[in-house]
Automatic annotation (TrEMBL), chain A:
PANTHER family for the chain: MALTODEXTRIN IMPORT ATP-BINDING PROTEIN MSMX, OSMOPROTECTIVE COMPOUNDS UPTAKE ATP-BINDING PROTEIN GGTA
Domain ABC transporter, first and last residues per copy: 6-236
Keywords linked to the UniProt accession: ATP-binding, Nucleotide-binding, Transport
Molecular functions per Gene Ontology: ATP binding
Protein name: ABC transporter ATP-binding protein
Highest rank taxon of the organism: Bacteria
SUPFAM superfamilies: MOP-like, P-loop containing nucleoside triphosphate hydrolases
UniProt keyword Nucleotide-binding present: yes
Nuclease as UniProt keyword: no
Spans annotated as Disordered: 362-381
From TrEMBL, chain B:
High-level lineage: Bacteria, Bacillati, Actinomycetota, Actinomycetes, Kineosporiales
Family the UniProt entry places it in: Belongs to the binding-protein-dependent transport system permease family. CysTW subfamily.
Record-annotated membrane-spanning stretches: 37-56, 92-111, 123-146, 172-198, 219-244, 276-297
Pfam families assigned: BPD_transp_1
Record carries keyword Membrane: yes
Species this chain originates from: Kineosporia mesophila
Region (Disordered): 1-23
Name this polypeptide is given: Sugar ABC transporter permease
Segments of skewed composition (Low complexity): 1-16
Ranges where the ABC transmembrane type-1 domain occurs: 88-295
UniProt cross-references to InterPro entries, sorted A to Z: MetI-like, MetI-like_sf
Length: 381, 312
């Protein structure tokens, strides 16, 4: 089935008085790979089920080109779906599972056999065709689920955290496999995941959701380098996120902004329009913080508290005097207790509006600081 | 696994033989033979005392006719007497349709109620209450409701739908209704739990593959439910086959509902012919086993593996 775009218009879904999903506007071009990304309970699976027709909408419309499809039953939409738990029919062989949709469509027998064989070949399971799903490994079951969904040559494939039940190694393999299938078949794919790495590596565009609302839509690169809000930054691996207050009166996106975090004056870059009065959030990635030999401009003094070996690098946690806990990635071999100077490059330190609901670094942190901590540690340089 | 094996002294001169013993103990434990088997003892004693012994005793008794004539005389007597022999047909004619209807009626209702919804607990409670009532209360209710001067007949007469009261009790139908009332909740509960053992995402997957509601039920849910239906049928059949109080209270115990248990009762407590009563009980058991055997043989041809849900 060919189409040129799938359009979600103000889609919303309420459960027992609470909004699981609100105001989702999204236009998906044919052949695109879209990832819906967010923590559990953010509404991403709700959005997918709404598109699939397994959940009725509370508001909004869904269009496939000029055809309104949100009023159609799931079996009339012609979308393929891959479930988190695979949902293979346990009493049917692999081949029968894959043929199920084709039979439902009442295709001629030779056509069914041909397309099932093709789908089996696509996922390299030709020799497992006669087995029951229970006799296959998790990765093989997932491949059957994918083959079953794509055998129908659906206009859109919906995937609901398909890799979350697999172990790390298999997950990487299947990630490549899904991407390969997407490229070779040109399937329009909507992929739900809570794993930002998975989303970044697979999708053409990402939709970040939080509390049922869209936070940001963009390419992986846009989201990674230019998150517009702190929840997006948080989700994109920005482990150092703090509530602060703005010292400059206002700053537009890309402009320099001075912030005060627990008494530290830090210079950063506004990620969106920020102004006083109003809470701001400050974020920087662990890999953007530099360990420098001597204090200088834009550095803070801190004491190393935890060091984790992670192959080529160390993940270091350092505490500043006022109790700011910074995560740093560095190749330098540090030991807990070492005093370090950390440079926070202003162009990498992003200042976001909001952030009043961020967990603040509070007093109990001080108790963890070793007693021999120098009194002046953490003073702004 | 075997704590005994680790405490075995190995430095003594008899080390070789004692380690042999330890090895044997270990090998036995691997096959599940160790001291924990003793835990089975109390249960085993109860089963032997309350089930195996009476059964074997009854079986033996059935081959010792009171009036002589060889070990099979009682069986010859039962099958040779049309009045006695007919009880088999009468009981089957009650129990098979009742069990079938119980299962058949439970499937759509349980299927409809399989999801989560408000008031499910109340609804299932109402459906299950009859199981707690007991046969005598059910029979009284049936007499009051469906008897010649019961509510149902009075209502039907009142609105002029019928001219003479319907005969719904003290015949075949009274017993049949009673079997439905007491057997349905049982079948319903079992089937509901079998259904909740089927992963609901299977139906959603079928829907996404283009299967409509009927095909989803026919091709996915029903095949996965079928083994459970067979088991439920066997259990309700056994319950119905041993029908006794309702066959007397709301049935026609001298004729159309003279079921096999009545025959056994009369032999034992009216004629005091225990061997003959045992014979009838054995015949009863063999027929039940035959029916269950046929059903389970059919069941073994079905898919009986995991169904993915929480209950399986």
């Amino acid at each position: 089935m060919t189409f040129s775009r799938l359009r979600l218009e103000n889609v919303g879904r309420r459960f027992a008085g609470t909004d699981a999903l609100q105001h989702l506007d999204l236009t998906i071009e044919q052949g695109e790979f879209i990832a819906l990304l967010g923590p559990s309970g953010c509404g991403k699976s709700t959005a997918l089920n709404c598109v699939a027709g397994l959940l009725p909408l509370s508001s909004g419309r869904i269009w496939l080109d000029e055809k309104r499809i949100d009023v159609l039953a799931p079996e009339r939409r012609g979308f393929g779906m891959v479930f988190q738990n695979y949902a293979l029919f346990p009493h049917l062989t692999v081949r029968r599972n894959i043929e199920f949709g084709l039979r439902m469509r009442r295709l001629p027998k030779p056509e069914i056999a041909r397309r099932a064989a093709q789908a089996l070949e696509l996922v390299h399971l030709e020799d497992q065709a006669g087995k029951l799903p229970g006799q296959l490994s998790g990765g093989q079951q997932q491949r059957v689920a994918i083959a079953r969904a794509v055998a129908l040559e659906p206009s859109v494939v919906l995937m609901d955290e398909p890799l979350s039940n697999l172990d790390a190694k298999l997950r990487l393999e299947m990630r490549t496999e899904i991407r390969r299938l997407h490229q070779s078949l040109g399937l329009t794919t909507i992929y739900v995941t809570h794993d930002q790495e998975e989303a970044l590596s697979m999708a053409d565009r990402l939709v970040v959701l939080r509390h049922g609302q869209v936070q940001q839509i963009g390419t992986p690169e846009e989201l990674h380098s230019h998150p517009v809000s702190w929840p997006v930054a948080d989700f994109m691996g920005c482990r150092n996120l703090f509530a602060g207050s703005l010292l400059t009166p206002a700053a537009d996106r890309g402009e320099a902004a001075m912030v005060d975090v627990l008494g530290l004056r830090i210079e950063g870059t506004a990620a969106a329009h920020v102004e006083t009065p109003g809470a701001v959030a400050v974020g920087i990635r662990p890999e953007d913080i530099e360990v420098v030999p001597v204090p200088g401009p834009h550095t803070v003094d801190a004491t190393v508290s935890v060091v984790e070996y992670q192959g080529r690098e160390f993940a270091v946690e350092a505490l500043t005097g006022p109790g700011l806990r910074l995560h740093v990635r560095t190749a330098e071999r540090l030991v807990p207790g070492d005093p370090v100077a950390l440079r926070l490059p202003p162009e990498r330190l992003l200042v976001f509006p909001g952030g009043a609901d961020l967990p603040r670094p509070v007093a109990p942190l001080d108790e963890e600081i070793t007693p021999d901590l120098p009194a002046d540690a953490g003073a702004p340089a | 696994m075997t704590t005994a094996a680790t405490t075995e002294p190995t430095t003594e001169p008899t080390a070789a033989s004692s380690s042999d013993r330890a090895g044997l103990r270990h090998r036995l434990a691997e096959r599940g033979i160790d001291a924990r088997l003793l835990l089975l003892l109390p249960g085993l004693v109860l089963v032997i005392a309350l089930f195996v012994y009476p059964f074997v005793y009854g079986l033996g008794l059935s081959f010792q006719p009171m009036d002589g004539g060889g070990p099979f005389e009682n069986y010859r007597r039962f099958f040779g007497d049309a009045f006695q022999r007919a009880t088999i047909g009468k009981t089957l004619w009650l129990a098979l349709p009742a069990a079938l209807l119980n299962v058949a009626a439970s499937v759509p209702i349980a299927y409809r109620l399989r999801g989560r919804f408000r008031g499910k607990r109340i609804l299932t409670t109402i459906l299950v209450i009859p199981i707690t009532l007991g046969t005598v209360l059910t029979a009284e209710g049936l007499l009051n409701f469906a008897g010649p001067s019961g509510w149902l007949n009075r209502a039907l007469l009142g609105i002029g739908l019928i001219d003479d009261p319907l005969r719904l009790v003290n015949n075949y139908w009274g017993v049949f209704f009673s079997l439905i009332i007491s057997g349905f909740p049982f079948a319903f509960l079992l089937i509901l739990s079998y259904l909740s053992g089927i992963d609901p995402s299977l139906e959603r997957a079928a829907a996404s593959l283009g299967a409509n509601a009927w095909n989803r039920f026919r091709l996915i849910t029903l095949p996965l439910l079928a083994p459970g239906l067979a088991t439920t049928f066997c259990l309700t059949f056994v319950l119905a086959f041993s029908v006794f109080p309702s066959a007397i209270l709301v049935g026609d115990p001298t004729d159309s509902t003279r079921v096999i248990s009545i025959a056994a009762y009369q032999a034992a407590y009216e004629q005091y012919d225990y061997p003959f009563a045992s014979t009838i009980a054995i015949v009863m058991g063999v027929i039940e086993l035959a029916v269950i055997g046929v059903v389970l043989a059919g069941r073994s041809r079905l898919y009986t593996g995991t169904t993915g849900g929480k209950g399986a």
